[in-house]
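Render this sequence as a predicted structure.
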Amino acid sequence: MLSEQIISELQTIVGPNNVSTVKADRICYSYDATQQSFLPEAVVHPKSAEEISRIMKLANRERIPVFPRGAGSGFTGGSLPTKGGIVLCTEQMDRILEIDEDNLVATVEPGVITEQFQKAVEKVGLFYPPDPASLKFSTLGGNVAECAGGPRCVKYGVTKDFIIGLEVVTPIGDIITTGGPTMKGVVGYDLTKLLCGSEGTLGIITRIVIKLLPLPEAKKTMLVLFDSIDGAAQAVSAIIGDKIIPTTLEFMDGRTLDCVRQATDLDVPDQARAVLIIEVDGDREFLDKQANRISEIIQPLGVVETRIATTPEESEAIWQIRRSVSASLRKVNPDKFNEDICVPRSKVPEMIRKVDAIADKYQIPIVNFGHAGDGNIHVNIMINKKIAGDLLKAEGAIKDVFKAALELGGTMSGEHGVGIAKAPYIPLEITPVTADYMKAIKRSLDPNNILNPGKIFLDSPKH
């Protein structure tokens, strides 16, 4: 445990009420969405970059590991305090500092909840597109650290495409700024992009400058049922090939549909084996034309049924089907490993067939859904941890899924990051020379390996 002297110094920095060593509090900050748990020695809630700077200088002096944390909603263990030490939680730094309507820029602190920020800018007619599934509780600081994605990134891009400046506390306690509120800037290295997606290993984000867009006037949502996953994938290519870029192109495979049938009252024809949820946004006068054109393009590709929402309530009902998927998976098996591979979108049908073969090989159910527009597939490997051998099957299946994605020119992670969950498999995707280059950056910025140690790269990776 940390000494009384160190606890006293932390209390001096952030105030006695913002440091806790009570076990119940430490347990609350010991886990994330992976359901793995590592108990920290203390939980600290700073309120400024200056406080974080002093904490990091203390941690370096005493060689105490520090683990930055937002809402703890990550799927790869990026915020887990794997080596004890201090959990540094930024949830109290939750102010929207400015929404600049003239320059379409906002400045926020890292603890702002994603959805709350979206609603705040929409009130003044502006738009922040990145929409991870965790948006109702994830923080913008965590979104930046993981470079979060979401359904709308097929049209608008991911988090890093909207982050134009940062204030950051470095691993040794310096406070730096990167980028700024201008749309252009090429002085020096692009540290903003380096830090976006660095999973809290290179710095602690204390302020974020965000590019905004005008809010689209309207949107239209479509639910399209297909008789095969191939037809759904061909529809994605056909839509984009016709120079239409929808806001979202979400897909669910046949096994996912079976789960939805059991969990909801949705009337799904038996011949339907895949679903696309297609949404377009923009000027109201063009939306009907776009929706009708999409229907024409995809009709020959095995469409069983098309449903187009005519009211906001109908649109919400369609999206509720997508949101019901995760909960419905528990009907397959109680435990899951949610992987987020990404392949070229034309390779989605081939990847699904490879996943089906892997499911047959290991005799465990695997359910697939995700963002068809950018080839990001959420591969859900469903097991029962109480059954002997299921964990070993899952490990084998995960490795085979990663290898299959890489064979198709894809990646092991489209939006969840590496953390500790994918760290053992890094050598499958990143060459030793490339990994050494990345590790050199980490060593130069964090010579004492204080900040979020043990994440992304392991000392003894699996091969």
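Summary. The CA atoms of residues 218 and 285 lie 9 Å apart. The chain has four domains: 4-89, 96-214, 218-326, 333-417.
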